[in-house]
Amino acid sequence: MKIGFIGLGNLGRAICTRLSSLDIELKVYNRNKEKIKDLAYDKVNSPKDLLKECDVIFLCLFDSNAVRDILTGDNGLLCEDLKGKTIIDLTTNHYTDVLEFHKMVNDIGGNYLENPVFGSVAPALKGQLTVVSSGKVEVFEKVKPILEKIALEIFFLEKPSSATKMKLINNLCLGSFMATLAECTALAESCEIPKSKALEILGVGGGQSLILKAKTQKLIDEDFSAHFSNNAINKDLHLLQNLAYELKRPLYSAAVPKELFSKMKMMGKGEEDFCSIYQLFK
């Protein structure tokens, strides 16, 4: 079976590497063709071209604007050829836009599965992502064997938009933890405690977390090549605040991390990994 894949950024590339390592044949499309020219996958010229041979197509894009463009743009996926095909959307969308995507695809006989990803490059390469899906239960059950090739933990929340909202809620933890760990690291250094030793102690103390395990070596090496960018976490925390506003709820602990990551973006560091927020505190 050939699987279509649209969006080969950092995460998309890692997921494609995982799928191809399992001898799954991929046909890929990326809006910036120059960025994928050296990849060995079978490339197509438009999203619509994937529909000729692929019954399942993954989207792994930056935001809802990008998803809408892939669906409705010139030679996009939203056409008669989509009938009976399934779109698995790994994008962290806006929680209202994703409702529109469900309707747009389902109304013409396609299947849309909202499927945001928890995790970044390292777990993706090992097939150890976490995914939360929303959509029709029969669609989820049909493609679950494919999801099991990229994810260790799989959850299903049937009501459309629930998976997206849960992803945003999860990223409140992610952004808050990263900002706190970065500040703790910089503070320890100010106390003349070696950075590597401070991170080791935090890793068995109050800082013990998946995020610290994933970012310890990057912080030690000050390797800020992006696995999950400042731009991405900044976008997600903005969406989370929009959600809280719509629910007429205060959102106390998201405000400061969001502004810190906004500062990183303003400083021209948006494409760096979000652990580079350490630089602000240092």
What's the name of the CATH homologous superfamily of the largest domain?
A: NAD(P)-binding Rossmann-like Domain
Number of helices, where a helix is a run of at least 4 consecutive DSSP H or I residues: 12
Give me the CATH fold name of the largest domain.
Rossmann fold
Helix content: 40-55%
Output the helix-strand order: EHEEHEHEHEEHEHEHHHHHH
Q: What spatial form do the alpha-carbon principal axes imply? A: globular
What is the first-to-last residue Cα distance?
A: 50 Å
How would you write the strand order of the largest sheet? 3-2-1-4-5-6
Number of strands: 9
Estimate the strand proportion.
Answer: 5-15%
Secondary-structure class? alpha/beta
Task: Give the number of domains.
Answer: 2
Radius of gyration (CA) equals: 19 Å
SSE blueprint and pairings:
Layout: E1 2-6, H1 10-21, E2 25-29, E3 42-43, H2 47-50, E4 56-59, H3 64-72, E5 86-89, H4 97-107, E6 111-114, E7 117-118, H5 121-126, E8 129-133, H6 137-147, E9 151-156, H7 162-190, H8 195-204, H9 210-221, H10 230-246, H11 255-266, H12 278-281
Parallel strand pairs: 1-2, 1-4, 2-3, 4-5, 5-6, 8-9
Antiparallel strand pairs: 7-8
Describe the structure.
It is built from 12 helices and 9 strands. With 282 residues, the protein is α/β, with parallel strands linked by helices. The protein has 2 domains: 2-158, Rossmann fold (3-Layer(aba) Sandwich), CATH 3.40.50.720; 164-281, N-(1-d-carboxylethyl)-l-norvaline Dehydrogenase, domain 2 (Orthogonal Bundle). A 6-stranded parallel beta sheet has the order 3-2-1-4-5-6, sandwiched between helices. It has a 3-stranded mixed beta sheet with strand order 7-8-9. The chain is globular.
